Amino acid sequence: MTLRHFLDVDDLSSAELAATLDLAEQADPPRVLAGRGVALLFEKPSLRTRNATEMAVVQLGGHPVSLRAEEVDVDVREPAADAARVLSRYHAAIGARVFEHAKLERMAAGSSVPVVNLLSEDAHPCQALADLLTLRQGWRSFAGRSVAWIGDGNNVCRSLVLAAALAGVAVRVATPAGFALPKPVVRRARHLGGDVLVTNRPEEAAEGADAVATDVWASMGQEAEADRRKLAFAGFGVDEALMARAAPEAVFLHCLPAHRGDEVSADVIDGPRSVVWQQAENRMHATRGLLLFLMRAHE
Ligand code: CP
Ligand code: NVA
C-alpha cells in the first residue's frame, strides 16, 4: 500500500500520467469507492471542479461530502494537519481548493488517505489532466505536438506546462513582463525533459502550435488587481488573427470561466476550433481516472 498525494502534476511519473489518462477513458469503471466517502473542501468558488469531482466519486460508487471553508475554518479552528487527520478517518480521499499551496502540504502531512489539489495559487493539476485528455482525444498521440499558452503564467499555466513536459508535448508560453511563468517551474519542466519556450510575444508562441490555451487575467483572489492587469495584458487576448498563426487544425483550450472580449474573443471560444466544453466534461472523466489510480496505489 502506497499513500500517494496529487498536489501537482509531477507527483505522477510520465508512465503514471499516461495510465491515469487511460483509466479516465475506461468504460464501466470499477466501483472502488463503494460505501466510502470523499471530502471536498472549497476555500474559493467552483462550478466545474465541485460538480466534476462529486460526479466522479458517484461514478466510482462513493459519496462526496463538499464543505465550504467557512464551515471548517482550517488553520483557525484547528490546524490543517489535524483536520486532514480527522477527515481521513471517515473518507477514502480528501480534495481541497485553497489559496495557499502550503496548506495542502500540511493537510497531506496529517492525512492517511490521498490528498488531491483542487486548485491552489500555485497549481491546478486536475485541470491539466483534463487538458491533456482533451488534447489526446483529438490528436490520438502526443508525439511531435505543441501547445501555446497566451496570458498569465498562473496556476493553470504552471500545471499545464508540467503536464506537457511529462507527456512529451512542447510548450510555448507568452506572458507580459511581470506575469511570467516562474523560473523554478520552467526548470522543473525542463528537468522532466520538457521542451519549453518562454517569450513576451504571443505571435511567437502561437506560430505553428497544435493547440492554443489561455485563462483569465485576474485569478480568484486577484479581483482588486483586475483593472491593472487588464492594461498589462493588452495584446494578449486570443483572437482569430492569433489563431491564424497556429497550425491549421489547432484547437483552442480554456479552463473556464472565460471573459469574452478580454483573454479570448467570442468568435474563438464560440467558434469551430474551441474544445472548451469537451475540456470541461473531461474534468469529470480525468478526475475519475485519477481517483482510480490513487485508490489502486493505496490498496
Ligand atoms: N476550471 C475550473 O476549475 O473551474 P471551477 O473554478 O468552476 O471549478
Ligand atoms: N486561474 C484561475 C483558474 C480558475 C479555474 C483562478 O485561479 O482563479
Whole-angstrom Rg: 18 Å
Helix content: 40-55%
Mean pLDDT metric: 97
Instruction: Tell me the domain tally.
Output: 2
Named CATH topology of the largest domain: Rossmann fold
Order of helices and strands: HEHEHHEHEHEHEHEHEHHEHH
Features:
15% strand, binds norvaline, 299 residues, Rossmann fold, alpha/beta, 13 helices, binds phosphoric acid mono(formamide)ester
Concise account of the structure shown:
It is built from 13 helices and 9 strands. It has helices spanning 14-24, 48-59, 69-72, 80-90, 101-110, 125-139, 155-167, 183-191, 202-206, 226-232, 240-243, 266-269, 276-297; strands at 37-42, 63-68, 91-97, 115-117, 146-150, 170-174, 196-199, 211-214, 251-254.
List the SSEs and their pairings:
Blueprint: H1 14-24, E1 37-42, H2 48-59, E2 63-68, H3 69-72, H4 80-90, E3 91-97, H5 101-110, E4 115-117, H6 125-139, E5 146-150, H7 155-167, E6 170-174, H8 183-191, E7 196-199, H9 202-206, E8 211-214, H10 226-232, H11 240-243, E9 251-254, H12 266-269, H13 276-297
Describe the protein's architecture and organization.
This protein is an alpha/beta fold. It has two domains: 9-124 and 283-298, Rossmann fold, CATH 3.40.50; 127-279, Aspartate/ornithine carbamoyltransferase (Rossmann fold), CATH 3.40.50.1370. It has 13 helices and nine strands. It has helices at 14-24, 48-59, 69-72, 80-90, 101-110, 125-139, 155-167, 183-191, 202-206, 226-232, 240-243, 266-269, 276-297, and strands spanning 37-42, 63-68, 91-97, 115-117, 146-150, 170-174, 196-199, 211-214, 251-254. The strands form two sheets. The chain has a five-stranded parallel sheet with strand order 7-6-5-8-9. A four-stranded parallel sheet has the order 2-1-3-4, with helices on both faces. Helix 2 links the parallel strand 1 and strand 2 (63-68). The protein binds phosphoric acid mono(formamide)ester and norvaline (NVA). Norvaline (NVA) is lined by residues 119, 154-156, 215-216, 219-220, 255.
